[in-house]
User: What shape does this take?
Amino acid sequence: MTFRDITLWTALVTPMNSDGSVDFRGLESIIKRQEAAGNGILLMGSTGEGLALGDEEKVSIVNFVSDINPGTPVMVGVGGFNLEKQSKWIKGCNALNIDAFLLVSPLYSKPGPVGMEQWFRSLLDASDKPCMLYNIPGRTGIEIPPAVIKRLFDHENMWSLKEASGDISDYRAFRNTTPKLPIYSGDDKMLPVFVEAGCNGLVSVASNVWPEATKRYVELSLQKETSSFEEVWPPAIRALFSVSNPIPVKVLMVEKGWIQSAALRLPLTSRELVDKENLYLADESISDWYSNHKIKI
Assistant: This one.
């Protein structure tokens, strides 16, 4: 299976011990769950608290996963606002057993179209791997202009776009400007809507806790067979984002016994999640849905 075959990428959490250190045993365990489900793995995105990890921790994580060499594609997040530092990170990862990079808009600086294009072009030049660009204005403070994506389309390392503005009109602007570019939803709840406009797949938070069920959700979405979704998936996804991601996801993964601790890096804390009942109800609801909609063998 190559990265181009993957329709579901899991934006993987970074498990941590109760003292805040990286839980490598837990990381290997949840990677195996994603591998078994046939999902691609995104390391150190926003769900993986990539910006809260130190440089040495990030190096140790990507080396650890490279040594495991999972039987499913691995993508590594690239985020920040220091071009030299991000380019160095990419070059250090080039020789490892990873398949792709996720390139996020520069944070805080809010560049114009010229600066945005030069930023991404420099990172694409530094890479030896295919790259997915990431439009998430809610976190970066600025949208990637569709014209920038169009100008970068012919770069040999330009592979795809993760669109997470939450606005179908933004998605359509990218699709209309660069119709041959693979585009993935970066928002679990928006996938069925984006598929109607030609979406290629999903980069998911939900698949951390529901790897097989989310895989089936993506399959049915791409087949436009969504009649069973309305009473199940929207409320379940709302429960996962009732407070800042990945707080609810980590709490539920502890409840399932998949990781040992819901520890996060401040300013995120599991103490924000006061009412967990809806989260547990969502887990039951998705489990029941999957039992009724998984492929019978």
